[in-house]
Amino acid sequence: MNDPGRLTRRSLSPRLSVYRWQPAMIASLAHRVSGLILVLFVPLYLWILHGMTGSTDDFERMQQWLHSGLGRLSLWFVGVALFYHFCNGLRFLSIDAGWCESRMMMRLSARVVIAMAGVAALLLAVLLLG
Amino acid sequence: MKLIKEPGSARSGFRDWYLQRLSAVVLAVLLPLSFVVLILVYTGHLDQFGLLDIVDNFVSRLLHTILIIALIVHAYMGLKVMIEDYVPVIGWRVSLIGGMLVLMSGFGIWWLAIIWAWGG
């Protein structure tokens, strides 16, 4: 703790203002953002669980809310965040295991995962609006 | 090198990293199942009694418990890393991580209480 001011007052990674934006960096940041979204929706999961485990009225109320505009939007956010976090999580695990570790493969897989999430977002929107 | 040894340093780094991956593997298997159940409830393919049939037995409860524990470990490790990266002031950092731990434990206990009490 000789010089805490200089050492600690900066963010460590990924340093947004320093590096040029690359697919792998976007994938990493999106992993954090989607993880944060999934955590922020925790009260909703508890409420849904309450509706599922409660009385028939509770269940009906939960179903009605899920089919409302806000409910569908929430399901879309959670679904897309979960799908992306899942796919990119598998990508991270494979990189940790030593597969597809080259710079080119990491960039390519980042693009693939982001594109898959885009398609999933569209499909889920169609499903929820239909 | 002395400078680096402060709260949030790399002392427990490998254990955290390992737990993060271990919980990720558990979640990768169990979480899609729960999401499918949620979608089936949403679309009406599964009513409340059908749901009870699936969840109201020992194996489901055990899997559900493992899921919640892995979820809390994973979310805790992930948010902790984010806070350590983007919250530079030590006081804030420690308070946020502590508050998060309390909230997540509370959430987990509440959730498990519902799961194990359900159906009776």
Task: Please give a structural write-up.
Chain A has 130 residues and is mainly alpha-helical. Chain A has helices at residues 4-8, 23-40, 42-53, 56-66, 69-96, 103-129. In chain A, helix 2 crosses helix 5 and helix 5 (69-96) runs antiparallel to helix 6 (103-129). Chain B has 4 helices and no strands. The N and C termini of chain B lie far apart (57 Å). Chain B is mostly helical and 120 residues long. Chain B has one domain (14-117): Fumarate reductase/succinate dehydrogenase, transmembrane subunit (3 helical TM bundles of succinate and fumarate reductases, Up-down Bundle). In chain B, helix 1 packs across helix 3 (58-86) and helix 3 runs antiparallel to helix 4 (90-117). The chains are: A mainly alpha (130), B mainly alpha (120). The A-B interface holds A 1-4, 7-13, 32, 35-36, 38-39, 42, 46, 48-50, 52-53, 56, 59, 63, 66-67, 75, 79, 82, 86, 89-90, 92-93, 96 and B 2-4, 6, 21, 24-25, 27-28, 31-32, 35, 38, 41-42, 44, 48, 51, 75, 78-79, 82, 84-86, 88-90, 107, 110-111, 114, 118. Chain B: Keywords: Electron transport, Heme, Iron, Membrane, Metal-binding, Transmembrane, Transmembrane helix, Transport, Tricarboxylic acid cycle. Chain B: InterPro entries: SQR/QFR_C/D, Succ_DH_anchor, SuccDH_FuR_B_TM-su. Chain B: This is Succinate dehydrogenase hydrophobic membrane anchor subunit. Chain B: It holds the Pfam family Sdh_cyt.
